[in-house]
Design a protein that fits this description.
alpha+beta; 5-stranded antiparallel sheet; 25 strands
Length: 435
């Protein structure tokens, strides 16, 4: 069941929190959940509103919630959101409704609620959940075609690509929020002309512009999730940068796929943007090109095709250390859109569980790199530079084939639709540290 529109989406709704109205990411119509550590205090669940965080533990102590909203806030106030994710959509909606009323202009509890706010700049964001498992998919059709052309010009997509969502199991332990910058990995590298591999720092480090998907209620082992019910198992969304050492990956990935070239670091944005917040931005899944195979019945649901895609603009910027020193702003590298996913998020959930695999609350999916058909929205340097053959030039005069130490990469997202207030995801930021 997709989230429905209600009073929390009203574009006329205004907040008493200074700076929330018109905020690029977190107006009152968004209200994403996260986990933050305010100063030296223990971490707790929070909600973003403008540049402030509502501390849910403090709000509970102030008795700002009642009934089902209080029960949900008790789960969401913990140092991880796993139990809140497991509770599903109904408690999440009850808490969202209560939060919207609490933070709206005219709230009778404004004075008490003000005491539960902290500036976001004074808090450290933490991973929102204990990630038991992390799966990275490959559902950006144009990215798959672009990469395939680099290595198989005559046959860029392998035969299975349009029949089944392609994915692999990643490493959950190295998923971090943006404050933990990735270190350039070392690994075995072998160029085609080399007689033997060498162990060295990666020379072809790359980013990947992806959408992250948080799992809510799971499924019992051996009990697949039907695609028509998969939306009920989605707790929210984030941005995801699956850093990739292309040279390490090229040597190791055959025949079993990515390993050390991927597992060293994955960066996510710290906010869980709920399905309810994204309700105004649901879109129909783009029709498949003529001649493409129809999905098998266990991956097909007409309602999901009508509203299972997300109208979500995506972007990535790069700022080198020299650019920062010179006061130059980040360079926009790409603008893409989540509607370029070949499979919907519901199809990913259904496919992942179709063999009886049990998903758990707090599991994380990556969409795979989401690129546009044209050059304006390529989601990786591998595509932008055609494997390093066509370097890009930065405003500082520097060139890049792949990432250098000190490069700051920031992913961003913005959901927009006429008649509704735009919302964002907050930045997904990482700075490359030396090996």
């Amino acid at each position: 069941m997709s989230a429905a529109l209600d009073a929390t989406h009203d574009p006329a709704l205004r907040s008493w929190v200074e700076g929330a109205d018109g905020h690029a990411d977190f107006p009152i119509q968004n209200l994403p959940f996260g986990v933050a550590q305010p100063g030296d205090a223990p971490a707790q669940g929070v909600v973003a509103i403008g540049d402030q965080l509502l501390l849910l533990g403090d709000a509970l102590d102030a008795r700002l919630f009642e009934g089902a909203a209080r029960d949900a806030a008790t789960l969401a106030a913990r140092a991880t959101l796993n139990d809140f994710m497991a509770a599903g959509a109904a408690p999440r909606r009850a808490l969202r409704t209560a939060l919207s009323a609490l933070l709206a202009r005219g709230s009778a509890a404004e004075a008490r609620a003000r005491l539960c706010l902290r500036p976001a700049a004074e808090c450290r964001m933490r991973l929102p959940a204990r990630i038991g498992d992390y799966t990275d998919f490959y559902v950006g059709l144009h990215h798959a075609e672009n990469v395939g052309r680099l290595f198989r010009p005559e046959n860029p997509l392998l035969p299975n690509y349009k029949h089944v969502p392609i994915g692999y199991h990643g490493r959950a332990s190295s998923v971090r929020v943006g404050e933990a910058d990735p270190r350039r990995p070392r690994g075995q590298i072998k160029a085609p002309s080399d007689a033997a591999p060498r162990f060295a720092p990666s020379e072809r480090l790359d980013f990947e512009l992806e959408l992250g998907l948080w799992i809510g209620p799971g499924n019992a082992p051996g009990e697949p999730i039907p695609v028509a019910q998969a939306a009920d198992h989605i707790a929210g969304y984030c941005l995801l940068n699956d850093w990739s050492a292309r040279d390490i990956q090229a040597w190791e990935y055959q025949p079993l796929g990515p390993f050390l070239g991927k597992s060293f670091a994955t960066t996510i944005s710290p906010w869980v943007v709920t399905p309810e917040a994204m309700a105004p931005f649901r879109a129909s899944q783009p029709p498949r090109p003529e001649g493409d195979p129809a999905p098998l019945p266990h991956l097909w649901d007409a309602a999901d095709q009508r509203g299972g895609a997300l109208a979500l603009g995506l972007s990535v910027t790069l700022q080198s250390a020299a650019m920062r020193e010179a006061g130059l702003p980040p360079m926009l590298l790409a603008r893409s859109d989540a509607r370029h996913m070949y499979w919907t998020v519901a199809q990913l959930v259904a496919h992942h569980s179709s063999n009886g695999c049990d998903l758990h609350p707090g599991d994380l999916f990556g969409s795979g790199t989401i690129s546009t058909p044209g050059p304006e929205g390529l989601g990786s340097l591998l595509e932008m530079t055609r494997g390093g053959a066509a370097p890009i030039t930065l405003p500082s005069g520097e060139t890049r084939r792949f990432l250098e130490d000190g490069d700051a990469v920031v992913l961003a997202a913005r959901a927009e639709r006429e008649g509704f207030v735009p919302i964002g995801f907050g930045p997904c930021r990482g700075v490359v540290r030396p090996a």
